[in-house]
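Intended use. Records like the one below are meant for learning the mapping from a protein sequence to its folded structure. Do not use them to infer anything beyond what is encoded.
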Amino acid sequence: MRAVVVRTFGGPESVELVETAVPEPGAGQVRIKVAASAVNPVDAAYRAGFLVPLPEGGLLGLGWDVAGTVDTVGEGTPFAAGAEVVALAYGPGTVKAQADYVVVDASAVAPAPVSVDSVHAATVPLNTLTAAQALDLLDLAPGSTLLVTGAAGAVGGYAVQLAHLAGITVVGVAGPADEELVRSFGADRFVERGAAAGPFDAVLDAAVAGADALAYVRDGGDYVGVIPQADPPSVRGIRVQVVEVAADGARLAELVKLVDQGVLTPRVARAYSLEQAADAHTRLAEGGVRGRLVLVP
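Structure written out for the chain above:
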């Protein structure tokens, strides 16, 4: 089978498509025939060598998001072959979701949404779970004020929608061309990048503004970032936390239901073949992508 990997760290040119053995599921695991897998910033970070070393054997697989069909299962799994599913392929490995097949723990798997195709479904797991788990850390009461940086992006957009659903007053920050988009997610106010005022009860920093975002938080308020080990030092008694996304099939199933209810909006910028994986990384590196780039085997 084919898998997207890197053998050496670097730019988009380091992304390769290789032939490798089809992975076998163990107890409590499922093998998914991949229909689509999104390309996320974490894939670019893996590719560049920022997060993990090359594993033994010299191949580092790419792809955290998967939508597809259960192909075979290990002992003790609740899914059956033929089930349409989505999953988070968490952590490093030699074969990940940007491949013909991927093996994941059954606890990371959820039924696929029925309202969107597999390309759109592949944009759901990593980014919705990140947004939801970041909001969990903030634990804001209805009526609290929340500033979301990067509100036009994948994590930021989902965060605006989930916070709005929870009755939180949401202010979305993005570029001026994105105002209509951010308001469509349910933002109560829109603020152009660099012009936020505040103070707000909390900031969800999807744009990774870091210390600059703390200026918008009230004394004793809350900040949550989205990149582990990139949290700014606390000032003025602000509680600083960073979400480290965790695979959670039960929570993902709840988020999938919100997709089918129209509460969450999966967005696709463009689909590529596996052979075009390096091109997708090039486009991601150029910036300004609205919606996810998705690889289709």
